[in-house]
UniProtKB/TrEMBL annotation:
InterPro entries noted in UniProt: UspA
Pfam families according to UniProt: Usp
Classification via CDD domains: USP-like (cd00293)
UniProt-recorded name of the protein: Universal stress protein
């Protein structure tokens, strides 16, 4: 479990934004945040911007890793629609930056296209002093079965790791709470 089982309930149920820090340092230095489609991506980018504004010597990179496009085309048509993973990554970063209210000059965008997205992300973040990730949006059971990128980053990073989670937009129903409780 991410940051230990004591912290997990707080992270999952807090009615406000939550930020946890592992291995804090005097200055965040070069900061990277994962800019993807997860529910907490904008919150992690917002934290990165706040750190950047507090520490003038730091930099922020919004990182997005896209899968390499599959070889070949659709068998049912003669035409192929070209997929540009770099453009998709840039659009994703722009959307996250906009949601986080970051100005264009507050961050660098970095898009990587790779066959193994998970391994590439874990390797790429090791180049930075501070890694800011959004809390995983998956259930505890899914994390146990498949793992999560934020969990791997926290476990494998020697530097500062910050996990950000935004407040839940919609309250859980009794049924959702019961299912989540039974998953544990």
């Amino acid at each position: 479990m991410l940051f230990g089982s004591t912290i997990a309930p707080l992270l999952e149920r807090a009615p406000c934004d939550v930020t946890l820090v592992k291995n804090p340092s005097e200055s965040p230095g070069n900061i990277v945040t994962l800019a993807g489609t997860g529910p907490h991506a904008a919150t992690s980018a917002r934290r990165a911007g706040e750190f950047r504004r507090a520490f003038a010597d730091s930099t922020v990179t919004l990182l997005n890793v896209q899968s390499s496009p599959a070889e070949g085309g659709d068998e049912d048509t003669d035409e192929q629609t070209p997929i540009d993973p770099k453009a998709i990554g840039r659009d994703t970063i722009a959307a996250v930056a906009e949601d986080a209210e970051l100005a264009d000059d507050e961050y660098d965008a970095r898009v990587i296209v790779a066959d193994d997205v998970r391994e590439t992300l874990v390797d790429a973040v090791s180049e930075y002093d501070t890694v800011i990730v959004g809390a995983t949006g998956t259930s505890t059971v899914a994390q146990a079965l498949y793992g999560s990128i934020p969990q791997r980053i926290v476990q494998q990073s020697d530097g500062t790791v910050v996990m950000a989670r935004s407040e839940q937009c919609a309250p859980r129903t009794f049924r959702q709470a019961l299912i989540q409780r039974l998953e544990r």
